[in-house]
Inverse folding.
């Protein structure tokens, strides 16, 4: 990467800091002020980022590109909102203020103050702009705001506590600090800055400037390599126009041809061979819309796209059929487990066929191949000493007379106190559990209390496999596509240290364990189920090993929900690597968050939400469901299916945008020119359209290559929007009635539009395959058009004749939607007291602590606000102003108490509220403490004597030394920053451990000063639960 910039250009800070934060290498090329670097550009526009064949003129887009390449963006939608706000609102105001316009026009200062107020509001909600991690929007906004920090007589940031805290956090970051020091180090830095600033052109501040709250989400059409800034300010370059013209001159015989797929699909040398898997759906569940978008539909979109790119792709899936759930379902229905599996495998197959999921093979796990391959992997692990033998305690329901699988046990989580945890995982804290560790466990089948029975079992030795796994993960994290949640979940497992994991169960229905002494057991589902990918492929072709034992030629993509990540990223890869049999191991992992239904969750028992077998009964085409599910695909956060939004997206995006353009273009071609493609004499406006469409095409390719499936839909909709604008601007229906030249022009317009329609039909195929086929039938398009190339090529030759077009989509009416909403609302959940986490031993209510980053943020906020209060008091400020700031401090302390898992309103010796608070520091004990009750001097002395004998616990009501608390609070915040920085710098483990130890000691001292239990304040210091 090469960056062209002039000396003193503050906008280059955005790119340099982005590179420094992400560890990206860039080459800095210094040029003169006003120098025109790009040969096709008439004006100087610095800085410029050059990456191979691409050039970024927008600093925000360049910085974002660097973060995207480093996989450092968690919520792209949120980033785009702030980046758009910075370049269109904040930057022009800051520049105008610096150039003196604020002195001439008070409205500039007022508007800038208003913008800063909104920024402060956004920063009050989280440590950084989009969460608790420094992001690209922080880099860009800070780079602009840093210009105000060194300005004399600038009081715009005075008393803006949240912004000051954020600026301090940013400035203290080592990466940011190094860039700022370099920027300001030359003696001539100030002069260079002024010269660069005055040489640049910025958006002028006008009376219509909208100081919009950056925290409010806005519709942004492009969310990857090209931001909305580029769309509104960058014109199509001459280079783009020349590229379009050249592409349209390509001889048709030189067009790339679609790959002819042969059965069976097998890897080929020198091809890009892609193996796509989607998480195996459990057989006795009917999948709902959230299940469908979470794995099979997402994988289908990528698989279809990859095939259109002429990659060699195999997409496999199937039903996961072993385990207690199947046995129980069979018992309920009075049939055998095999019969229940046959029934539901058929149901799943029908559902996915209706949704147009294009598997190369959809199989099942109850096959001979499954037994053969699973036992072979087990024996190889056993022979290499990766299998341990140990006894474990299991839960057995004496009423049902069976051992209970983890998912058939419910109880209270021993880690966070959530009282609706499952035996294998807690939905409250997300931690994996052992069923025997649950407090007050209940059999999910009969609600009886199970008993603990000791049994001998087999374990895979994950600690011994950890070095192999970490080596593989380091490689694929660098080279592969891993969603943010997949990385975070995987890293948390590795960070916490792997533990041996049981791979056998006392069940009947499953793959038999072949080891002597254990033959009455079966393999546990999370050892056995992922091996189903291999056995399903083996049932597809006897040459399955060419896919599964060929890591040099095969790339593997896993599509799944976030709850399945650790089994696919840790346990399954570790077993394959440990077998040492040349297995292909996951290269890319694409995990979604959860899709909810309206304002609740999907529930089969309550008939809430649309399930796969019900979708067809609504009369809505499968493609419309596919479109909407992909439009709101939960890529970075949970989303919710909404019938009102469903109707809106259908009527606005499909009917009025996409469908309108396609039907208009083809109808005019058919009605005016008999459906025959005319000669196309491209003028400048045509070429501009084709250049913009090409830009969207290339961004679409970039999005889908990176599995940003939701963003690809927006590229399609932007192309149809461009087409609509093009038709509206040229009005072919008017031209057709004019002179012969005007009629020829009309022919060009509708024929160019038909080429765009043909391109859309191909780009739509991964998302809406039936709609794509319908468009191509109306176009009478040859199959040769079904390939996605880097350039937009005219696929329909002059003289080609289309058939009569018809509308693609139907309007959905409100009353129809109301009927569906009522139909799938289900029965309301039974009302019960709100669930409160409870202490494992006592059943006593407790609070779930927040993340450490949130605790650190609030700790620092309390320290900063404490300084504000003390300064106001020392300067004898207006009492009302002091009271206002004290109220803010008390609220921050309360928030911190909650974050630490301490009830800020907890009773002190059972006497809260029985008496009045007296003077002094008010009614608060300090950070994280309970409200201090006014007590007699004798009572306070008794408490102090008691606290000399033991560490004070939360709620003891001790007198607090606020000065000491404030001092230690700041020390904790500073040490927390230091710990994060050494971790970010990937320092030696010994260095990190030493800094963490210092942090924990400071936290203990702070807890004692606050009157809290020091061990409880740092999480007890105990280890996580072990297997017994």
């Amino acid at each position: 990467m090469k960056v062209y910039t002039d000396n003193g250009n503050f906008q280059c800070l955005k790119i340099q800091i982005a590179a420094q934060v992400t560890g990206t290498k860039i080459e800095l090329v210094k040029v003169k002020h006003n120098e025109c670097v790009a040969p096709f550009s008439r004006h100087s526009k610095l800085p410029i980022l050059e990456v191979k064949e691409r050039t970024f003129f927008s600093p925000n887009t360049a910085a974002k590109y660097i973060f995207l390449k480093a996989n450092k963006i968690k919520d792209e939608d949120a980033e785009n909102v702030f980046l758009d706000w910075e370049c269109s609102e904040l930057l022009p105001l800051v520049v105008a203020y610096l150039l003196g316009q604020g002195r001439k026009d008070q409205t500039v200062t007022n508007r800038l103050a208003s913008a800063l107020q909104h920024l402060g509001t956004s920063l009050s909600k989280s440590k950084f702009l989009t969460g608790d991690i420094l992001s690209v929007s922080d880099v860009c906004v800070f780079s602009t705001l840093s210009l105000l920090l060194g300005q004399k007589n600038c009081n715009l940031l005075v008393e803006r506590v949240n912004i000051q805290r954020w600026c301090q956090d940013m400035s203290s970051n080592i990466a940011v600090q190094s860039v700022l020091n370099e920027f300001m180090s030359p003696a001539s830095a100030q002069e260079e800055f002024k010269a660069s600033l005055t040489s640049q052109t910025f958006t002028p501040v006008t009376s219509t400037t909208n100081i919009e709250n950056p925290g409010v989400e806005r519709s942004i059409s492009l969310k990857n390599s090209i931001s909305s800034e580029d769309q509104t300010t960058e014109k199509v370059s001459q280079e783009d126009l020349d590229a379009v013209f050249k592409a349209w001159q390509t001889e048709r015989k030189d067009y790339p041809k679609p790959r002819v797929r042969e059965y069976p699909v097998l890897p080929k040398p020198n091809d890009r061979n892609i193996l796509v898997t989607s998480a195996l759906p459990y057989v006795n569940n009917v999948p709902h819309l959230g299940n469908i978008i979470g794995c099979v539909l997402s994988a289908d979109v990528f698989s279809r796209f990859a095939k259109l790119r002429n990659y060699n792709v195999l997409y496999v899936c199937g039903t996961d059929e072993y385990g207690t759930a199947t046995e129980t379902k069979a018992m309920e229905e009075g049939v055998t487990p095999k019969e229940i599996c046959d029934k539901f495998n058929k149901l799943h197959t029908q559902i996915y066929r209706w949704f147009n999921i294009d598997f190369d093979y959809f199989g099942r796990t109850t096959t001979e191949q499954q037994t053969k391959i699973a036992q072979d992997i087990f024996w190889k692990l056993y022979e290499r000493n990766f299998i341990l033998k140990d006894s474990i305690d299991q839960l057995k329901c004496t009423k049902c007379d069976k051992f209970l699988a983890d998912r058939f046990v419910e109880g209270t989580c021993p880690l966070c106190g959530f009282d609706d945890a499952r035996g294998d995982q807690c939905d409250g804290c997300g931690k994996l559990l052992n069923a025997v560790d649950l407090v007050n466990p209940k059999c999910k089948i009969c609600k009886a209390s199970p008993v603990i029975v000791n049994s001998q079992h087999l374990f895979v030795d994950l600690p011994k496999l950890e070095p192999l796994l970490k080596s593989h993960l380091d490689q694929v994290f660098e080279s592969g596509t891993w969603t943010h949640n997949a990385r975070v979940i995987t890293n948390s497992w590795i960070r916490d240290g792997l533990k041996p994991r049981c791979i056998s169960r006392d069940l009947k229905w499953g793959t038999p364990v072949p080891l002597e002494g254990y033959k009455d057991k079966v393999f546990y589902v999370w050892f056995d189920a992922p091996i189903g990918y291999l056995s399903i492929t083996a049932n597809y072709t006897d040459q399955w090993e060419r896919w599964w034992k060929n890591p040099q030629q095969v790339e593997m993509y896993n599509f799944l929900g976030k709850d399945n990540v650790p089994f696919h990223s840790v346990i399954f890869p570790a077993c394959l690597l440990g077998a040492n049999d040349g297995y292909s191991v996951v290269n890319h992992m694409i995990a979604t968050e959860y899709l909810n239904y309206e304002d609740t969750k999907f529930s089969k028992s309550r008939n809430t939400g649309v399930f796969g077998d019900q979708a067809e009964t609504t009369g809505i085409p499968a493609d419309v469901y596919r479109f909407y599910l992909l439009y709101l695909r939960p890529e970075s956060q949970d989303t919710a299916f909404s019938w009102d939004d469903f109707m809106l997206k259908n009527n606005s995006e499909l009917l009025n945008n996409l469908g309108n353009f396609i039907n208009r273009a083809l109808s005019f071609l058919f009605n005016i020119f008999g459906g025959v493609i005319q000669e196309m004499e491209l003028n400048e406006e045509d070429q501009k359209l084709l250049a913009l469409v090409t830009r969207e095409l290339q961004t679409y390719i970039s999005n889908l290559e990176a599995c940003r499936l939701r963003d690809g839909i927006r590229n399609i909709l932007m192309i149809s929007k461009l087409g609509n604008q093009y038709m509206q601007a040229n009005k072919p229906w008017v031209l057709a009635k004019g002179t012969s030249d005007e009629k020829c022009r009309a022919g060009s317009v509708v024929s160019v539009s038909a080429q765009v329609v043909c391109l859309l039909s191909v780009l739509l195929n991964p998302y809406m395959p039936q709609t794509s086929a319908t468009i191509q039938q109306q176009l009478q398009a040859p199959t040769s058009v079904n390939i996605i190339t880097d350039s937009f090529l005219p696929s329909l030759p002059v003289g080609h004749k289309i058939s009569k077009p018809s509308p693609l989509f139907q309007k959905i009416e409100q009353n129809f939607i109301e009927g569906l909403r009522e139909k799938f609302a289900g029965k309301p959940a039974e009302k019960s007291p709100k669930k409160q986490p409870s202490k494992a031993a006592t059943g006593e209510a407790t609070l779930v602590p927040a993340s450490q980053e949130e605790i650190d943020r609030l700790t620092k906020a309390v320290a900063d606000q404490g300084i504000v209060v003390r300064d106001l008091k020392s300067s004898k400020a207006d009492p009302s102003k002091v009271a206002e700031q004290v109220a803010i401090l008390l609220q921050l302390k309360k928030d911190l108490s909650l974050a630490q898992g301490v009830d800020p309103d907890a009773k002190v010796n059972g006497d809260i509220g029985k008496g009045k608070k007296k003077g002094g520091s008010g009614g608060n004990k300090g950070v994280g403490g309970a409200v201090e009750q006014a007590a007699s001097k004798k009572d306070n002395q008794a408490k102090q004597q008691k606290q000399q004998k033991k560490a004070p616990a939360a709620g003891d009501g001790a007198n607090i030394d606020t000065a000491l608390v404030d001092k230690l609070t700041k020390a904790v915040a500073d040490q927390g920053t230091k710990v994060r920085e050494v971790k970010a710098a990937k320092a030696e483990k010994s260095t990190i451990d030493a800094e963490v130890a210092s942090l924990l000691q400071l936290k203990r001292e702070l807890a004692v000063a606050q009157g809290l239990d020091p061990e409880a304040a740092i999480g007890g210091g105990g280890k996580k639960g072990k297997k017994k």
